[in-house]
Amino acid sequence: YFLMMKAVRCHKFAALGADGKILKKFDPLRSVLKLDQVPRPQLKKENSVLIATCYAGIQYPDALQAQGLYQIRPPLPYIPGLDCTGVVLESSTPKFLVGDRVMATTTNHGGTGALAEYVYVSEQQTWKIPDHIHLSECANLGRNFFAGYHSLKTVGDIKEGSLVLVDGASGGVGMATIELAKAMGAKVIAGVSTDEKKALPLSVGADRVFCYGRDRASYRKFKKQVINACGELGHEAGVDCVVDVVQGDLFEDALVSCVKPLGKICLVGFTAGQKPIRPGILLVKEICVVGSIWGRWAKDNPKQHRANVEEMIRYLDIGAIKPRVNRVIPLPDFADAFEVFEGANGKGNTVICISEDKTIRS
Asked: What pTM, to 2 d.p., does this model score?
């Protein structure tokens, strides 16, 4: 006899055919995702918790994974979702008590399993949330803030006074990276694809915001604007670090020229597609390009990762960063959340409400 729960499951990869090859026309994500009744997970091991989920975050990688185009391709059917927040229902660790308000990341499950009424995770992937923070606002910390902080601190070695360039700056990772860089005492130049998106990075403290557009002429204009801004901000040699979620032609046409000698480009994603990187141009510019994936590093360095997340939560507690939720979508309408990213409209943070937060204290 099993207790049952509601969970969203992906039953087919929307971009792949039966032979595993990429389709010319992708299936709609709505057609491959279903709200199912499945057995509720049980507390199986020591040092673990069972969470009654309130909110699950959905971001671009979740949509990419459901299409079968992400670096991790789980066995089907699977429950999407890396990030969740909720209340501890059962605990086998003294670190967490029943009733604790928590956030968790499902890294032990390959970044899947959060989009369900109940989530089972280890204590290492669970953190307490301050009582005055609404749980919906923390439901994308993993996808967005963990990625940004890993790029800035672990890879980019950003310090007070550093200059950072962030592209895709109106999206979840971009906005989080700006907030974290400012909390760390750095200066930030932000890049967005359209003028309409400029207000978002400005609202979280970007020192300059420029539009790089969608063609090579606008990329070159963006490059000149960023180089001029570097001088105005006291960094004539260029930015110390680029956090790049766009790649595509923007990478070579603009980004590599904006970095100081021996500076870094942290490659987080490629929303504009993947383009070859010529080693010659990196040699001439004397820059370092590093793939930035926090999950592997966190697994190999659990104590440092936990300390990083606790530092982010401290920033959150004192108001140095202010995670927000731009869209709250009820569980029955979960497909709307995936379609936000399927249609490349993913500004800000999107979360799915599984149960309202009734625990917040002002």
From this structure: 0.87
